[in-house]
Amino acid sequence: MKIIYKLIITLIIVVLVIYYFERANNEYSEEPVIENGLIKAPELVGISGFFNSDYKPSIKDLNGKVILIDFWTYTCINCIHTIPFLNEWHNRYSDKGLVIIGVHTPEFPFEKDANNVQDAIRRFNISYTVVQDNDYATWRAYQNKYWPRKYLIDRNGFIRYDHIGEGAYEETEKVIQELLAENGEAIDMDLIADIPSSSDLSYTPEIYAGYKFALPRKQDVANGGLSPDQVKNYTLPVKLEDDVLYLDGLWLSNQDSLENLDRASVVIKFSGKSANIVAHSTEPLEMDVYINDDYVTKDQAGVDIKFDGARSFVVVDTARLYSLIEGNHGSYTLKLDINKKGFLFNTFTFG
User: Fold this and answer.
1) Residue 304: pLDDT band by 50, 70, 90 thresholds?
2) DSSP element (H, E) containing 313
């Protein structure tokens, strides 16, 4: 009888655990409300913090306004590229009834830190409202899967437009103007933000370091592969292939990052005009930056490059995206030499 009793208790616990997690996953994933073919915008839920606002914003309280919801995270290069347009739209239309809310949904654990988010808001000169969606509650409510993604909501709370990724700036601004005009605002319909010219040039795609992100995307360390949760000693080969990650030295393979355990190097042959790395460290350290086996010159340097004579380096002292290269489009070999252990990086992005 004792065995049967224990089995019953165990079964009850298992059922309760399954119920709890199912409820947590579905708490903010209700079926959308649809009226006249339009989807009612879900509420902002599970918000753990907010910035540039004296009150916790909600869709309901903003009834009568035109709302732009922007899902972003501060290390996403595609998100960063869209911020100047969001800033410009805020400056142009906020006094005409447009409310922009940046929903910051983190991709990496350190992006949950409110201080890091505040630093990014200051660095990107964001003056519109930003909320923290650390538990993906609003993300799930909108059934979103992408960074960045923008939703435009009309005065009655219905989603009238959404766009995934960069681009479509002119199209998005036209919809903003149309929705504001519906509210009776006098809008200059010919006023459009400057649009970067399109290009057919090739660019290296984003490269992830953590095995949880890299392996599902069929990315790997080219000279030896990732060994999840293990330490591995890497040696650089003589010949390097394009658009893949190479390591030198001792590295620990974490779910969302690679971490060096001694002095080490990272090498990538990339195509583009800019290169960035999302990185942090257990304590401040210096990372030498080379392009095609030479130190970076001042006309190639990203904003985070520092110089000591001819030497070019970056001080890694907080968890964020670091701008390494900003120059002319081309094919380059980027090498990073890290001077001590405790350096962790999550991803490379190129533009």
Assistant:
1) very high
2) strand 311-316
75 CA to centre of own chain: 4
User: Residue 330: what pLDDT?
Assistant: 95
Quick one: what percent of the chain has pLDDT higher than 90? Answer: 82
User: In which domain, by residue range, is 177 found?
Assistant: 31-182
Neighbour tally for 183: CB within 10 Å = 15
Q: What pLDDT score was predicted for residue 202?
A: 86
Amino acid (1-letter code) at residue 213: F
Is 171 found in the same domain as 70?
A: yes
- Asked whether the beta carbons of 245 and 277 are under 8 A apart, the reply is no
Q: Identify each DSSP E strand in 17-172 by its residue range.
A: 34-35, 38-40, 49-51, 66-72, 98-104, 129-132, 149-153, 158-164
Do 16 and 51 belong to one domain? no
> Do 170 and 227 share a domain, yes or no?
no
For residue 108, give Cα distances in angstroms to 1, 15, 76, 343.
49, 31, 10, 16
Q: What is the mean pLDDT of residues 183-212?
A: 78
Count up the domains in the chain and report the number: 3
Backbone region of residue 27 per phi and psi (left: phi > 0; alpha: psi in -120 to 50; beta: other values): alpha
The DSSP annotation for 70-111 comes to EEE-TT-HHHHHHHHHHHHHHHHHGGGTEEEEEEE--SSGGG
Inter-residue contact 106 to 346 (CB < 8 Å): no
Find residue 39's DSSP bridge partners.
34, 159
On whether the CB atoms of residues 248 and 234 are closer than 8 A, the answer is yes
Q: Is residue 194 part of a domain?
A: no
Higher-confidence residue: 9 or 139?
139
What pTM was computed for the model?
A: 0.80
Average pLDDT for 87-114: 96
**Is residue 189 a part of any domain in this protein?**
no
DSSP bridge pairs for 98: 66
- Residue 338, both tokens: 């890290």
Instruction: Please count the other Cβ atoms lying within 10 Å of the Cβ belonging to residue 110.
Output: 18
The CA-to-CA distance between both ends of the chain, in Å, stands at 67
